[in-house]
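Need a sequence for this fold. Nothing fancy.
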């Protein structure tokens, strides 16, 4: 739970949004440590104040669940992200686009399917949708740019259905939602649920919006959910991938892969991007910056958002039953209130067990003349960081063969080796780069060799005496 002052500030922010945006009902929650730390609601659903179990339509947040199913299939070896769509769903006019490009909206596909505005009309079967697609469905060369595509996720839902020999929503329910305890997230509404409305732009009156089964396009925005269930989804995005005693829903490293930027949405500023099924955002608040992963959602009559900050272990969500009208950054404002009123405490420092062989490796190393420092991390991990703070810093995980694997930065995926010579010398070999205990140590196998006259004064000067 949050402190009373924090809760009051959050409730006021929510109340201002509901009143000024003229939203029939609005619920929001802040998640911390995997649990709802604060929940607020304004407006009415069926004459009652909505609660954390009231269903709202979540629109494109559905895409994140479909994406997790695709990544489960990848981890099982049922597909590769570099596979062209035609390998698994043949017969489309965009079969050369890869699974990764569909997940990251870089396939070049058109945004919407052929026919009427799909979000307000009953859906068609997959075969009919694919049959209506023509060469014009490809708007850009695959991989060229970010272009959001609802059609792409319709096709990914069909991929899931074919690989599981079951409807996509059944696979999502059985393999993701039920293990996470998200039993109130469904493909069609259940009671109690909010009804979707359009609010007149110039008068305080409502117009009911239609709700349909969208068939082939359902994987792009069909699902309904609750604040309680979306809080669990925020915790999942943060890294809580456990499935209630029946194993992990997704490997943590796969989830981290989904949260990595695959494409920047807004050019040089890089405030918005997309990973593998997740929207990404950078936000600077009163106590520093956040890198958020999640998704927004909109369908006629409904708006929704869920964001998570894995680095801080917090999430935020809101659900509204209006087609449009939300005026401000409610989600990040709630996170800013939390950070301002209750900044997190750093984890307590504790000593760790360090083997003598690793302890002897700590301290300064040199890549040519550039000084680096090597530190030991838990579980025999290492970090190699420029002393200046500028340059190629990476963390490394220990492997069973005595080498280390780069986890991030320039050396992500590369191998670090400790090489010992017969005369007691030691150097680090990092993907052909040699790090030595002294700048350009002549006793180490520095690529290209070291001038035998050593260091000297000025260009062409004499060696020091």
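Here you go.
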């Amino acid at each position: 739970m949050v402190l009373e002052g924090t809760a009051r500030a959050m409730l006021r922010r929510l109340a201002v949004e509901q009143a000024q945006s003229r939203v029939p009902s609005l619920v929001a929650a802040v998640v911390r440590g995997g649990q709802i730390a604060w929940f607020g609601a304004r407006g009415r659903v069926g004459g009652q104040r909505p609660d954390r179990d009231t269903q709202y339509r979540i629109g494109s947040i559905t895409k994140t669940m479909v994406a997790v199913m695709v990544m489960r299939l990848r981890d099982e070896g049922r597909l590769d992200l570099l596979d062209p769509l035609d390998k698994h769903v043949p017969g489309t006019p965009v079969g050369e686009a890869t699974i990764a490009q569909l997940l990251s909206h870089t396939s070049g596909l058109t945004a919407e399917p052929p026919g009427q505005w799909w979000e307000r009309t009953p859906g068609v079967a997959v075969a009919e949708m694919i049959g209506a697609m023509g060469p014009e469905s490809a708007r850009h060369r695959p991989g060229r740019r970010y272009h959001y595509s609802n059609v792409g996720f319709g096709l990914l839902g069909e991929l899931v259905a074919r690989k599981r020999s079951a409807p996509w929503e059944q696979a999502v329910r059985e393999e993701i939602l039920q293990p996470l305890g998200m039993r109130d997230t469904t493909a069609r509404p259940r009671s109690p649920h909010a009804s979707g409305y359009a609010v007149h732009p110039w008068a305080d009156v409502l117009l009911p919006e239609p709700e349909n089964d969208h068939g082939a396009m359902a994987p792009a925005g069909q699902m309904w959910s609750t604040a309680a269930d979306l809080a669990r989804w925020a915790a999942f995005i943060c890294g809580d991938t456990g499935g209630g005693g029946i194993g992990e829903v997704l490997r943590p490293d796969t989830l981290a892969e989904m949260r990595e930027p695959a494409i920047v949405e807004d050019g040089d500023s890089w405030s918005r991007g997309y990973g593998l099924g997740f929207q990404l955002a950078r936000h600077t608040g009163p106590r520093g910056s956040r890198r958020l992963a999640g998704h927004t959602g909109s369908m006629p009559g409904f708006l929704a958002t869920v964001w998570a900050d894995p680095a801080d272990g917090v999430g935020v969500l809101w659900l509204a039953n209006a087609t449009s009208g939300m005026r401000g950054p409610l989600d990040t404002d709630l996170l800013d209130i939390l950070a301002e009123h209750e900044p997190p405490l750093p984890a307590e420092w504790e000593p760790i067990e360090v083997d003598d062989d690793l302890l002897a490796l700590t301290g300064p190393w040199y890549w040519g003349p550039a000084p680096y420092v090597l530190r030991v991390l838990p579980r025999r991990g290492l970090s190699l960081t420029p002393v200046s703070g500028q340059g190629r810093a990476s963390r490394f995980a220990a492997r069973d063969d005595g080498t280390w694997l780069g986890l991030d930065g320039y050396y992500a995926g590369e191998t670090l080796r400790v090489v010992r010579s017969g005369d007691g010398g030691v150097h680090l070999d990092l993907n052909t780069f040699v790090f030595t205990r002294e700048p350009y140590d002549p006793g180490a196998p520095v690529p290209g060799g070291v001038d035998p006259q050593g260091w000297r004064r000025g260009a062409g000067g004499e060696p020091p005496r």
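For context: The two ends are 69 Å apart (CA to CA).
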